[in-house]
Hints:
By secondary structure, the protein is α+β, with helices and mostly antiparallel strands. It has 4 domains: 3-228, 2-Layer Sandwich (Heat Shock Protein 90); 234-401, Ribosomal Protein S5, domain 2 (2-Layer Sandwich); 426-542 and 584-637, Rossmann fold (3-Layer(aba) Sandwich); 545-577. The protein is built from 20 helices and 24 strands. The strands form 5 sheets. Strands 1, 2, 5, 6, 7, 8, 9, 10 and 11 form a 9-stranded mixed sheet that branches. A hairpin with a 2-residue loop joins strand 6 and strand 7. 43% of the residues are buried.
Amino acid sequence: MAEKEKKINYDVSSIQALEGIEHVRKRPGMYVGGTDIKALHHLVYEVVDNAIDEALAGFCTAIDIIIHADSSVTIEDNGRGIPVGPHPSKKDANGKPMETVDVVMTVIGAGGKFGGGGYKVSGGLHGVGVSAVNALSEWMVTEIKLNGKHWRQEYKRGVPQGRIKQIGKVEKEETGTKQTFKFDKQIFTEDIDYRFDTLVQRFREMSFVTRGVTIRFTDERAEREMTFYFEGGITSFVRYLNRNRENLHPVVHVEKEIENIGIEAAIQYTDAYTESVYSFANTINTIDGGTHLTGLRSSLTRVINDYARKSGLLKDADPNFSGDDTREGLTAIVSVKHPNPQFESQTKVKLMNPEVQTLVTQVVGEAFSTFLEENPQAAKAIIAKCLTSARARDAARKARDLVIRKSALESLTLPGKLADCSERDSSKTELYIVEGDSAGGSAKQGRDRHFQAILPLRGKILNTERARLDKILGNNEVKALISALGTGIGDNFDIEGLRYGRVIIMTDADVDGSHIRTLLLTFFFRYMPKLIEDGHLYIAQPPLYRIAHKNNVKYVYSDKEKDKMIKELGEKASLQRYKGLGEMNPDQLWDTTMNPANRTLLLVTVDDAAEADRTFDMLMGDAVDPRKKFIQTHAKSVRNLDI
């Protein structure tokens, strides 16, 4: 860290107030994206982002995050600590100077991140972070270690409980901020709680893109703990994503600062058929991409085409590679550090700064061009991959023309096995993808023909993790599925063509059923991710047991429920275990699994695309050892596995 950066001013005068907090509790969607589980996790991210900002400024090396047994959360860093003392300009209702900590914690838009004095770059640039968390918490406690003193301030639903108090002394060099809060169930009214795995993925990503910081995450609810520290930064991230893939060359890494904007990228091509590219702005995962991602992709396509032409690997008669051709098998991370990032919304999912695209294109283009010039063998392997991809894409285009429907108005041939519904309003319709003809028969007879359609699949569909699109489109089961959905696939995918508002995977509760479900999920994740992102994909939950006692029949969905029910009804209850949907008659299938009034559906979501990408690759890819290790590790925690 340069000496001039270390001298950045950070005291009470660097905390600026941009006004307002009253409507945070009334309109939480404006600040944390809503009141669902994503918004709940966003509370944690906002506070952790402040600690990461201290790390980016060069003043924090350790961050501890703890979820306590009562679902309150503590986030502690060893940064500089929030300045303590009267604020130089912000007054309270009586015209007296506000305590600076109260300004930070209760005034929307207050922070040291606007004038450039407190932070060079920051993730929490909208200035609503910790004050919004405070407003949406039942209670919050702020502790600060600064200048040899230990301070504490308490809040209830965003309101300070008296003045800040000194509660002890610390070593002079000991500094930092500790925030503890409990989300308010008056705001978050759903039955939700923090997910360990979701938070782990976020903290892992933060650690990858913030070198030199140790992030320790403890969940006291389940006695789980993870610690992250990656000296290799985003190069380590790319290696982590590619550890189950065959690499074509070592990771290409570039890091440069231009006009106070830090640009870093790590690039590696593999034998995979899909793209794994992730973008970050000031350590925040911009899941919808933005100008930095556009710059990365366009520079790679341009550099590969230029090299292929110059080296004669692309002939004069050959067309240039498209972006799709140059992205097959690409794993890349692009991370920018910007003093004034412009995000599309408060939840920071897309970077909008136009100058970033030009700078990323320049920096990545120069580095990757140099790499190709200096590594001709790697360059040939990459271009051979692009050539194969281009040929396969052309074959896929021809195959796709036989599969996709041209327009919703044209009379198209739907698959013969599809039992369609009469309703034409897609917002009211459902498609059940059912395993096998016997289950399909029960589902067709038991359904409500008005709004429920049934598509039985014969056998297992192709493993789409190990095949290109042209081969996938030659598979009859996949063709039937694409035709039934009406969205097209690949370049021609259009969510507007979706014929069913809910697409429901309904398979048996056995090993084969689980495998078919995984194959289908792999297909949707790789080739129709928009179905998942827009909340159209579901998994049906058929019952595992039918329990009869006298004239009373109950259906239960887990072994735990079964044990409880048997205990209540007594040992004389008769028990039937359903191994397949076909074992149920149509009425039973309707009552338990298809009737909207009674059924349970699981919505398929992807909280972390990078981790989902790696997991699908590990479970469904060619490498056997990682899959074997995963099965051995998790074998004892498996439930409902039929032997």
